[in-house]
Design brief:
Chain lengths: ~325, ~325
């Protein structure tokens, strides 16, 4: 009911709505309306109200709640259910917990803040309050676990497209980072729970430094991390960007499910790659080799040429590039 | 201390040991000895005791506890720590929980009974009390998740060798069942939690119908399941069999870790396969195809020939065989 009252007030932001009208339209008592309005105030919504003329919504909070994001989402599954937290250890940890307990395909976990945000290989991810998009998507694809890595590229392509729709052109660092002016603005962390030929669930964690300020980054990562706001010079509409990511994700993901192909996502990753043509280092289980990145093939693997002239593919190793936030 | 007292009593089962001697040898008070002896009685150990001449161990329980299995284990890691339960929902569920909380590589979870034992694809596994070996091994290999399925074949080969050491020749139904006289006596369920190029942990669940009686099997699975005891006509020493499985597992697993090859395990699975040369059905995501099983290649994949004469490999699909406990 709270969301229906909010919707009614949102569509009438120019004028007051009487308690009587809300009561009649939604079939709810005036005492209950008062209770819901107070609950909304607690969430950061602001109202003008008068016992004579009713209520008018004057301000909505900058929060990535279901109420604030849902109306921008065009999907059938991805993001139809958004579970929102003000603070949490890590959206991936929560998503795995909810998935293990049966959360549905397409459920999205979003937190305003992560106190223990995770990057790949157990690294920490800075996630200050209300300044980024810290979210995880729960997926239950009927695919072989060996194809799970393809979903990371779908995520990277979806983020690229969504950020582009906000007027900012980024580059993709295969397979799971998005960079802007040589610094990281987004990381994707895909985790899975699986049997050998059956995925229980995938969790695609997407962390976007949207409105993170310079002061939020610890000194030692300032050379390697930045935010969309810092680089573009203007604040980002987190709600629209969140919805755009989820909308683009569902389109690309549905194509993948229908024919197992990630051609479209790979094309986006290839055309906007920061790696191709560059000298890179490949780190796999502590072993480091040098190579030149040539291409991303249609299976989403990185094609490289080694110093001895032989070519090979990198499945999902750690890759770093000289000059791109240093060799990490 | 309890295990050291037990060890002392075990090595002197022919004679009484005085409380004074235990007290001196182990540096423990006689009141404490009495407390530990009572704790052991609660676990099913039986003693003769006399205040004059001391204690004598007369009977040990048929339980797969660390105390009862450890002295038969020759390994460096696998089974060095055994966590034992009298009853539990599922050893795989418990193992995943412990692994997520940091349990060490090689930790083994054993339960005398499972109330919700799991087979592949969410199927139930009958696990009556004290009659089987219901255990899960936690592994943390530094391998790419795409090679995780190889560990299932290592498990199958280890079980085959261990059962063979007890004088019973079984056959292996690639990739994860052990059969005897056409019926299932063991199933292996490998689960993993992973990032894209890093395994957090693997859990190898091994369920063996050792001393399960005919009456324990529900009517509808009697045609497809049996136990080592039913088929061989004599009860199985569960402790020795458990230790042998873990010993064989570590040998084969260490070979795999040293060079990523599962040649030895594959050789065992190939030479003792129930599938090779047979007409089979391959079920993958609900789609069913017929084929003839030709070989298991060195990567552990099943090589098949299709009705049109073309050959292919099966990575880890569900496979069934006519006449082998029906098509399931």
């Amino acid at each position: 009911m709270k969301d229906r009252i909010l919707e009614l007030l949102k569509t009438n932001q120019d004028s007051f709505i009487s308690g009587q009208r809300i009561s009649l339209e939604l079939g709810v008592s005036r005492a209950a309306i008062w209770k819901y309005i107070n609950a909304l105030k607690d969430e950061g919504y602001e109202f003008e109200s008068s016992s004579k003329i009713g209520y008018r919504l004057t301000s909505v909070p900058d929060l990535l709640t279901q109420e604030e994001v849902a109306d921008k989402i065009k999907n059938n599954r991805i993001g139809k259910s958004i579970i929102h937290f003000n603070t949490i250890d890590s959206t991936n940890i929560k998503a795995k917990e909810l998935a293990a307990n049966g959360a549905e395909d397409g459920t999205v976990i979003i937190s305003e803040e992560q106190t223990a945000g995770k990057g790949r290989l157990g690294r920490h991810w800075i996630s200050p309050k209300n300044k980024g998009i810290w979210m995880s998507i729960i997926l239950r694809p009927h695919i072989n676990p060996m194809y799970a890595s393809r979903v990371t590229l779908i995520g990277a392509a979806a983020v690229f497209k969504a950020v582009e729709s906000q007027g900012i052109r980024t580059l993709i660092k295969w397979p799971n980072d998005i960079v802007l002016n040589g610094k990281k603005v987004c990381g994707i962390l895909t985790e899975m729970s699986a049997e050998l030929n059956r995925i229980h669930y995938l969790v695609i964690g997407i962390g976007i430094n949207a409105n993170v300020d310079d002061i939020d980054f610890p000194e030692e990562i300032k050379t390697s991390a930045t935010s969309l706001k810092i680089e573009s010079g203007h604040p980002i509409d987190r709600k629209s960007l969140t919805a755009e990511i989820l909308n683009n994700f569902e389109i690309l993901y549905d194509k993948f499910l229908s024919d197992s192909s990630i051609k479209d996502s790979v094309a986006i990753c290839r055309e906007n790659s920061v790696l191709l043509g560059k000298e890179i280092r490949i780190i796999n289980n502590g072993k480091e080799t040098e190579a030149k990145a040539l291409d991303i093939n249609d299976d989403g693997e990185l094609v490289v040429v080694h110093p001895d002239g032989t070519t090979g593919v990198v499945f999902s190793g750690e890759v770093s590039m000289r000059g791109l936030y240093g060799y990490v």
